[in-house]
Amino acid sequence: MAILVTGGAGYIGSHTTVELLATGHEVIILDDFSNSSPKVLDRLKTITGKNIAFYEGSILNKPFLNKIFKENNIEAVIHFAAFKAVGESVKEPLKYYHNNIVGTISLLEVMAENKVKNIVFSSSATVYGVNNISPLTEDMPTSATNPYGYTKVMMEQILNDVAFADKEWSVTNLRYFNPIGAHESGLIGEAPNGVPNNIMPYITQVAVGKLQELSIFGDDYDTPDGTGVRDYIHVIDLAKGHVLALKDNLATTGSHVYNLGAGQGYSVLDLVKTFEKENNVTIPYTIKPRRAGDIATCYANSNKAKEVLGWTAQKTLADMVRDSWRWQSQNPNGYEE
Ligand code: UFG
């Protein structure tokens, strides 16, 4: 029995594939390379020593999806494939709603037709919106401030409704906080297209000399040093969370939701200073105005994942910044030559 990983060539999907293979699962990757590289597949083979079945294409293509289910014995799907750039989603909302929402519906329809009713979904702490106070718990109301965020809120709702209507389904929504870090081999990591939106790839590209300096968006928040506080989580811890969530998903039915965060907030300046100290590099920065849509503080209460899944984040902020830097310094241009 195999696990279909949609978006398996992406940042979180590739790391999750490593952990699935390490725990004895068979993996089939589906990816359209819209935000990833075919080179990831070679790197995964080097890390795991295994050949991984791969299909290139989109979750929007139902006949193609059907073929994958007919050709393989799939027991569950881990669904990462989605667009994820907040700013782009504001400019091109239909692109986001089409790919993320229609794509998820297409996947669920083909799963149901093939009687595969177990799915673990890549959701985000973005669904907590701007009004909930950290530490965030799974029972808080969800909302969003941009089309990307709304696609996550809606996809969770669609999955919950499907599980409510047909009691054979098991759906698990995993709300990620801020994944950073990389596999310790330095062979796979985060490789955004163009100028990074997120802080860690921005820092590593400054460190490697591709970008001149970091802009810190605001130092007048109500936080200990005035800069934004986030719950950074090592991508390998996150990947391990998927393996445990999958085990729970396969053993149960109904809807499940878990925060996957370290449960600890660090400021932008904490992150920059830790990066500099651990890696012995300097990150020049200037303080800029706040970025639209940002909140002061966002971190998880991860007790539920601990109690039900037996999962806690193990790696420290120092581990995260060292692994991010190893990846970027060994691959200054990401997966491009
Ligand atoms: N920041 C900077 N400079 C930058 C980029 C970010 O100072 O160049 C700051 C932000 O203001 C924020 C912190 O660094 O305080 C983290 O910002 P990121 O863009 O890395 O992450 P966000 O917390 O804004 O967003 C991330 C994901 C979203 C997801 C959200 C969920 O990118 O997809 O977490 O909480 F929805």
Summarize this structure briefly.
The protein is of the alpha/beta class and 337 residues long. Helices cover 41% and strands 18% of the residues.
Describe this structure in words.
With 337 residues, this protein is α/β, with parallel strands linked by helices. It is built from 11 helices and 14 strands. Strands 3-2-1-4-5-6-11 form a 7-stranded parallel beta sheet, with helices on both faces. Strands 12-9-14 form a 3-stranded mixed beta sheet. The longest helix has 21 residues, at 93-113. The two termini are 36 Å apart. It binds uridine-5'-diphosphate-4-deoxy-4-fluoro-alpha-D-galactose. Uridine-5'-diphosphate-4-deoxy-4-fluoro-alpha-D-galactose binds next to α7 and β8.
DSSP strand count: 14
Bound chemical compounds: uridine-5'-diphosphate-4-deoxy-4-fluoro-alpha-D-galactose
Rounded Rg: 19 Å
Task: Classify the secondary structure makeup into a structural class.
Answer: alpha/beta
Helical amount: 40-55%
Helix and strand run: EHEHEHEHHEHEEHEEEHEEHEEHH
Strand content: 15-25%
Which residues sit in consecutive blocks of at least 5 with pLDDT less than 50? none
For the biggest sheet, the summary is: 7 strands, parallel
Give the N-to-C terminal Cα separation.
36 Å
Going across the biggest sheet, name each strand in turn. 3-2-1-4-5-6-11
Mean pLDDT: 97
Helix tally equals: 11
Q: How would you describe the oligomerization state of the chains in this entry? A: single chain
Note the overall shape.
Answer: globular
Pathway: Carbohydrate metabolism; galactose metabolism
Subunit structure: Homodimer.
Cofactor: NAD(+)
InterPro entries: NAD(P)-bd_dom, NAD(P)-bd_dom_sf, UDP_G4E
